Sequence to fold (274 residues):
Amino acid sequence: MSGLPELSGKVAVVTGGASGIGKGIATQLAAEGMRVIIADIEQAALDKTASELGAIGIRADVSDVDSVRALAKEATNRFGTVHVVCNNAGIGPMAAIADLTMDDWHWMLGVNLYGVIHGVQTFLPILSANPDGGHIVNTASMAGLVAHARLGAYAVAKYGVVALTEVLAEELAAAGSAVGVSVLCPGTVHTNIGRSSRNRPARLADGALADIDIELEDNPVYRWINPEDAGAVVVRAIKRGDLYALTHPDWYPMVEQRHQAIAAAFRQQAADAG
Ligand SMILES: NC(=O)c1ccc[n+]([C@@H]2O[C@H](COP(=O)([O-])OP(=O)(O)OC[C@H]3O[C@@H](n4cnc5c(N)ncnc54)[C@H](O)[C@@H]3O)[C@@H](O)[C@H]2O)c1
Fold:
């Protein structure tokens, strides 16, 4: 798949760029000499981070396609085009599937799945029209590769983001496109995700999803990295054209265990049939 080895002077849009991983990505893209636009739903944090990074801040709600279209229009009006889009904005509250309300599902899928869909639908034609192509980075999670209790709604969205990105990569490659795509699957990163409910819309207020600060949980599996480290992984993936951008290679055994369970089921089925 095509990568973008030279980023300097090109234009990037990072959603959820006011905080956490998005801010880390924006920091690293700016360090590469890119002209960076950060988009976020939180105006005060957006203004603060934009001035800190010397980036342009544009308020946008990724769950609303019209808002994402307005973001793209403002970005292209300002810079003429966009080369790199990081569909990163997201939320991470938790609840058991049995307790979820429809407001919970709509909030979670609206931001974490439709937010990425809106970004791809809106920006892919802009990137495809560039003579030198472009790159899309969709933020999923390790929970897009292996699912755990309390993360049902989150994992449904993140598995969707992984699938969307894998299929898009295959289609872009088959078309000989100069646009590449990566899916970022971070492990545990120090961010504000444990306070996601600050951005829950009043119209979807009825729910069981709750903020749980897993930084307070004494789980030996967790290895915490900083957002800038995740940003550096993203820069490498864009330059090389990597499909999978991973921050925690040491977590592979979790994914392998899932694959082994699926392989065992296939063997069992083959034995039953034979
Ligand atoms: N922190 C982790 O350990 C971790 C691990 C795996 C994946 N992720 C993913 O990383 C991404 C970034 O999360 P983070 O951990 O940096 O959290 P964060 O809360 O620090 O940053 C998320 C940003 O998204 C913004 N946002 C929320 N809803 C929005 C909306 N509707 N429209 C536009 N912006 C919106 C928030 O205001 C915030 O600035 C998310 O997609 C998350 O699922 C995080």
Remarks:
- The chain has one domain: 11-273.
